[in-house]
């Protein structure tokens, strides 16, 4: 009897079962790695492809990406890298769904040292995507800076700035201008920023008013501790040639209305000292520790320039060096200083101070010659380099002075100078100590609309205060009362101007 031939059906069944068993093992392992461990296939020792190959098959341009990943496998396989790519992929998918981004969009990511957002764009199907950073990281990132983006006008349909890039920019206005320049008409730009307060939001809007409309705001959780909370803002380019420094709050007469969000800041300021202090030289000085500085309440990142205007500066050490440089919270911004001082005694020292522009004139309500008087309170002594505080009057009215040193000096229209020098996109801090002239200058700032260009004022109001030298006697230098000073401060705050009592 012939031996029975092997059953081919039996062999097939064995092979199929082995293959199914192997497939089940793969599926279980994949489910564990991706779903439970929340990692890539690099977890443990079970991986079918090398990290570089896994990255390469993730999207277009696989050969170049594989070569790049092979050069730096640790970066591309790290948990931080993978989490970031997943996060940005989700963000871009939402933008695609909202109609702000399309797979055909030529796209640019700015200030992206690693190119995680570039890879995420390619993963969601936006094949024509590239990034720029100061240091290139091929093939995802080219060398380039936002102050001069290395692409022609109207190159991109979509521009993305993540990781708070706009907030960190030393010149946000230049950043905004370059994004607008390289964006096509009807193109979109998306920004990830930290700030959520109304001041920074309006500052952001002002940066792009010259070219773009805000079309989307979304608050979301970040993917790491550097930005745990993110505000995504999307703008659409729809106009050209509009002056970004034009003041939308001004009317045809030059006057302005302080925007409502600034009124909210005033409500959060420290209380005014309503009762006249018996020792103002002590009370007002101590009050400085109660001041709620604007940068302590809001983010000031989205401003074009940062300026400190010291009206009545006297010596550099009077307030610029001793207070503003050391104590004012600047959020790591570099401020340029304008020192306005008519007294020539102090002029020479400013010649060697960096970042300071001296205006050797008297701040006034128009351009004309003035008389400058040095007149001290009884018992006041000359100390060091200084001399008595100086008051000014128009030349024809100088008969009202009473025996102090008198000099003829040039005066200039301060409000007009301010409007020509700064814009609403600048962050402007002002200190004013002008020996009674504040009752002329402040109304002029309102009349011309220049007051809307100032973000924060430290004002010393001069009145017939009690004298330090002579108990029971008031200073004969000034006619105004403390109540009139209080009215001036109150009217400023009611108008939405963040003003503090200076000493």
From TrEMBL:
Q: Name one Pfam family in it.
A: DUF7870
| Domain DUF7870: from-to ranges | 269-365, 409-503
SUPFAM superfamilies membership = S-adenosyl-L-methionine-dependent methyltransferases
> What keywords does the record list, in alphabetical order?
Membrane, Transmembrane, Transmembrane helix
Regions that span the bilayer: 14-34
* Highest taxon above the source species: Eukaryota
Q: Which Gene3D superfamilies match?
A: Vaccinia Virus protein VP39
Which intervals hold domain Methyltransferase type?
Answer: 142-191
Q: Does the keyword NADP apply?
A: no
What is the protein's name according to its record?
Methyltransferase
**From which organism does this entry originate?**
Flemingia macrophylla
